[in-house]
Amino acid sequence: MNHHTAPHPHPTARRPAGHQRDGRLTRTVRLLTPVVAVTVAALLAAAGTPDAAFAAESIQAVVNNIRAWLVGILVAVATLFLTVGGLRYAAANGDPGEVEKAKLALRSAAIGYALAMLAPLFVTIVGQWVA
Fold first, then answer.
1. What is the pTM of this model?
2. Residue 76 to residue 43: CA distance in whole angstroms
3. Which domains does the chain have, with CATH numbers?
4. Predicted confidence (pLDDT) per residue in 19-77, tens digit
5. 112 burial class (0-12, 13-18, 19+ CB within 10 angstroms)?
């Protein structure tokens, strides 16, 4: 009888692909959690309550309140896409299709942040055009 035992894996041997992916996913979640928390806190602090947006004395105050809400919504959606893109990229594990989906989500986040920065300009232009 030949009792052949399998050699023990070397301590520096590659870990299974699932383990590596879980490590990247955990690291990405740890990095993105503070970003999402700060964004949500900033939105809540800046926006106030929805009723306050339309309870202003002048049209200019209403426009300013709508602008704040618009920027807040755009930043929240962009942050969501940033989080989804980061998680997809971490979980892709080299799959080209998943990496492409992650890149698309990250591009969408960049567009959302750009629109959030330009929203005050758009609201000002529309306000001047209407008035």
1. 0.56
2. 8
3. 17-124 (1.20.120)
4. 455 566 666 667 666 766 766 666 666 555 555 555 657 777 877 788 888 888 889 89
5. buried
